[in-house]
Amino acid sequence: DAGVTQSPTHLIKTRGQHVTLRCSPISGHKSVSWYQQVLGQGPQFIFQYYEKEERGRGNFPDRFSARQFPNYSSELNVNALLLGDSALYLCASSAGTEQETQYFGPGTRLLVL
Amino acid sequence: AQSVTQLGSHVSVSEGALVLLRCNYSSSVPPYLFWYVQYPNQGLQLLLKYTSAATLVKGINGFEAEFKKSETSFHLTKPSAHMSDAAEYFCAVSGNGRGANSKLTFGKGITLSVRP
Lengths: 113, 116
Description:
The complex is a heterodimer. Chain A is an all-beta fold. Helices cover 0% and strands 50% of the residues of chain A. By secondary structure, chain B is an all-beta fold. The radius of gyration of chain B is 14 Å and the shape is globular. Chain A binds chain B through residues 4, 31, 33, 35, 40-45, 48, 50, 55-56, 58, 90, 92, 94, 96-107, and chain B through 4, 32, 34, 36, 42-46, 49, 51, 90, 92, 96-100, 102-109.
């Protein structure tokens, strides 16, 4: 079975631009979460979606937004990029039930110049 | 609110030696606890998890962790280190339900080096 997939793997943008990151969950999983991992730090929670609805939001500015599609894939959008947005963006999928385990994709590495 | 403290940023052991990576947590609800491993330029791989069943949890690659409520700890151990264990290790905590209660809060991570 395929795991969580993310695209693109790497991305270079300049300040002020917009970026869209994509994630496909494990087959049968209905929940997708997004995390930001800055170099040298642990991942920080950005969003969680379940059945196309937002379940949780971390402490990130409104420049960050996300959505989940009927096939449970998800997009993370970041507007007006700042240098500090440079990070590894991780997507995790889970079944959406209690005691759930989140399974992570390989991430998208974003560099903002 | 939940938080995780991983003491020290780097641990170095000799091949064959005991591995001990420390994790302390804070949680206002009974926690679920996780250890993830991250190899260079890769995502996170689940090593093991505690979800209120047995307090001693066995994971993949010979790792195990013990939940100690009185000490609010969930330390990761492996009896004999292997060169392939060199990686970044993250401890994480979540609440015990769905939705926002299931988000993971990570520690800063510990880099494990294994000397030949």
